[in-house]
Amino acid sequence: MTELGHIAWPPAPIRTGRLVLRESEARDRAAFIELFASPEVGTYIGGPRPRDELERAVPEVPGRRPGFFVVDLDGAMIGMVTLDRRDAERPGHVRPDAGEVDLGYMFLPEAWGCGYAAEACAAALGWFAGALPGEPVVLCTQSANDRAMRLAAKLGFTEVERFEEYGAEQWFGVWTSVTPPG
Ligand SMILES: CC(C)(COP(=O)(O)OP(=O)(O)OC[C@H]1O[C@@H](n2cnc3c(N)ncnc32)[C@H](O)[C@@H]1OP(=O)(O)O)[C@@H](O)C(=O)NCCC(=O)NCCS
């Protein structure tokens, strides 16, 4: 994973109808640990991580990097949305020079089924389109991950290809802020 690029970071907090997307803070640490320790969250992304290991490894202020948004509902973290450059060695590309920006999302199970992930991802994509106009964003998820697949479609991602990775079929899609002519 490489840096996002020449984008001023952090932006001012992004407000949506119900949420705020902001840089992480020390008070988010417990929610981070919940996210990564949750068996439900980990189902399609490599499984949960042991809580004691997380307690040791997670820094005091986790997730402080360009492209990493904490999603805040009424003052508490409910999930995260990330925009990172994709490793060139991984399968799935839409640019000849690789290094595509990849959208990721993880929410606490109690926040699922309310449209929060869709609201937060749409806001992050809107911010990104303003920062780097016309640059595509890609998304990769296990095709068995129904919720992530529905969310990708809702956000306007379209399928590029499917491939095997981590022992499962992956769906790889692309989104761009520029509407093709015609
Ligand atoms: C993937 C993930 C973020 C999707 O969360 P989600 O809550 O299902 O996604 P959305 O924000 O799109 O919410 C959609 C649901 O909210 C419902 N909803 C309720 N109120 C709503 C509102 N006001 N607006 C929009 N949708 C609303 C929709 O009907 C839909 O319900 P359904 O799933 O029963 O059809 C979540 O399952 C997750 O964190 N999974 C674990 C991590 C993971 O696998 N990440 C993907 C890695 S690639």
Automatic annotation (TrEMBL):
The keyword Nucleotidyltransferase is annotated on this UniProt entry: no
Keyword Membrane part of the UniProt annotation: no
Keywords: Transferase
InterPro entries tied to this protein: Acyl_CoA_acyltransferase (IPR016181), GNAT_dom (IPR000182), N-acetyltransferase (IPR051531)
Pfam families: Acetyltransf_3 (PF13302)
Occurrences of domain N-acetyltransferase (ranges): 19-181
GO molecular function term, any single one: acyltransferase activity, transferring groups other than amino-acyl groups
Coiled-coil positions: none
Transmembrane segments: none
SUPFAM superfamilies: Acyl-CoA N-acyltransferases (Nat)
Superkingdom as given in the UniProt entry: Bacteria
PANTHER family: GNAT FAMILY, PUTATIVE (AFU_ORTHOLOGUE AFUA_3G00765)-RELATED-RELATED (PTHR43792), N-ACETYLTRANSFERASE DOMAIN-CONTAINING PROTEIN (PTHR43792:SF1)
Protein name (database record): Protein N-acetyltransferase, RimJ/RimL family
Native source species: Streptomyces atratus
